[in-house]
């Protein structure tokens, strides 16, 4: 008897900004292009419909996995999502993951190409959180990106996180982070937004990067191939555990993304 994957519900934050919604809407299309046989639906936590619970209810009992298009385990993931899931399962947030590092590297290299020069330092700029542990993911991703750039370029490229909403005294703003890097002798500083889509945060980063004399600012992560593959990797990891019912079977690829090994589970 044929086995079919559950429906993938891509759950985005939602935004009042039309350009953010357009970019968010392009990501499910990228996912469908990679896996045409998979049913992919969209849902939102804020501002737009359907909400996650509405998207789950519309499936009328068809198995579903909600993949949160979130970069960390903040309020939407830890508080909102469990209350909205119903019979569906939820995959882990998108960060950290090697494919996220790949997507950030791609955006950085786009910006460097426009600037005509490689960066000798990178500021990974996030909205930030005041919740305990809310910024840990950004700090981890900054370390992963720095290691990836070293492997790629053969020389150290420091990647420092900067937060628009600092939660601790040691957290740095974009301007302060750029100042620290210049004090270390770095002169070609690139700003890479740790954001899913364009909006007021990315506008602020553009203006602040220009004001502080940074070399270039990359585009937000958006709808690119690596992000679509990342969503599928999270979906597949959760689907493996859901269908097998045994964490030891998590390494078996049933609806896998070619070349991606991800043993992260679901809740």
TrEMBL record:
<dbReference type="GO" id="GO:0016829">
    <property type="term" value="F:lyase activity"/>
</dbReference>
<keyword id="KW-0479">Metal-binding</keyword>
<dbReference type="InterPro" id="IPR050963">
    <property type="entry name" value="Sirohydro_Cobaltochel/CbiX"/>
</dbReference>
<dbReference type="Pfam" id="PF01903">
    <property type="entry name" value="CbiX"/>
</dbReference>
<dbReference type="GO" id="GO:0046872">
    <property type="term" value="F:metal ion binding"/>
</dbReference>
<keyword id="KW-0456">Lyase</keyword>
<dbReference type="InterPro" id="IPR002762">
    <property type="entry name" value="CbiX-like"/>
</dbReference>
<protein>
    <submittedName>
        <fullName>Sirohydrochlorin chelatase</fullName>
    </submittedName>
</protein>
